[in-house]
Design brief:
This protein has about 250 residues and is an alpha/beta fold. About 40% of the residues lie in helices and about 10% in strands. The structure holds coenzyme A.
Length: about 250
């Protein structure tokens, strides 16, 4: 393979609405950086959604998050994604898959993009399990009612959401939705799914009991987290492990 093609192959475009960027996105971008030399976080102007944040705000918030990471660029794009990818000199679209429910939509999107520009490939990464249950919509839903979504989005975005919905920052006496990883802390409190404090355990059970995931999976996730931690195959400083409260932001 000649050098020019090699370079093109190392640039991935990670598109989305990012209304707002969540720690699930950050985690995926972080992992994308382990595969590609450069990742462009491409914030869509043309999206089927009606965003809470303006395009400018969405770009600015993401830029703040990735400031100091030269391999990550944030930029807005208008029009068709595949045209933008081509303009950018790339041929890889990076997307995340959370659950089976994402698959159909992502499959459609990838096939349509492939139909439009055959040489552009879509690469999927599985979202890390501690972010499986979050989406920008569910985070906004909780934040709009004063729920504590700390730890689910980067700090600057947390602040922006609080401001947008008219809540004080830092937190005062707010409603605790119990998804912050548990005040008991201890090992494995990522997103409240591990064996953390009371709130963490309760949320894990909630997941397993007909919440966002199929019955039994919440418990499975906890066990998996503990096992992984014991076996040393996860970095304790990485993505919420061992941090107790709240789940820690993905690190680079
Ligand atoms: N962890 C947690 N949540 C995640 C996640 C992750 N790793 N990855 C995605 N999500 C969530 C997002 O928060 C978002 O939640 P929401 O639906 O509640 O807002 C949802 O999954 C999907 O969002 P996102 O990844 O931002 O994709 P999108 O569906 O908003 O983006 C575009 C779609 C922008 C890529 C698409 O509309 C597009 O390409 N637009 C340009 C115009 C175009 O080319 N159209 C034709 C396309 S065929």
């Amino acid at each position: 393979m000649d050098n020019a093609r090699e370079r093109v192959g190392r640039l991935a475009i990670y598109p989305g609405t990012f209304d707002p960027l969540t720690n699930g996105h950050v985690s995926l971008i972080r992992r994308g950086c382990q595969i590609f030399d450069n990742v462009v976080v491409a914030v869509a102007a043309d999206t089927p959604k009606t965003p809470l944040f303006s395009l400018d705000e969405r770009v600015r918030m993401a830029e703040e998050v990735f400031a100091g990471h030269p391999s990550i660029t944030v930029e807005p794009f208008t029009g068709l994604l595949v045209d933008y990818v081509e303009r950018r000199g790339a041929n890889v679209i990076l997307r995340g898959l959370r659950a089976v429910s994402d698959f159909e939509y992502e499959f459609q999107l990838a096939l349509m993009n492939r139909k439009l520009k055959r040489h552009i490939q879509t690469v999927f990464l599985m979202t890390d399990y501690q972010w499986l249950y979050i989406s920008s919509t569910i985070i906004k839903a909780a934040a709009s009612l004063g729920g504590d979504i700390k730890g689910l989005v980067p700090e600057n975005i947390y602040r922006k959401l609080r401001e947008k919905y008219g809540y004080p920052y830092p937190l005062g006496d707010d409603i605790d939705l119990g998804i912050g990883g548990g005040s008991g802390g201890g090992e494995g409190g990522p997103g409240g799914m591990g064996r953390g404090g009371a709130a963490g355990s309760a949320f894990g059970a909630g997941l397993g009991n007909g919440g966002f995931l199929p019955r039994g999976m919440g418990a499975g996730l906890s066990a998996e987290g503990d096992d992984a931690l014991r076996n040393g195959c996860l970095d304790p400083d990485d993505e919420g492990y061992g941090g107790g409260t709240p789940p820690m932001a993905p690190t680079f």
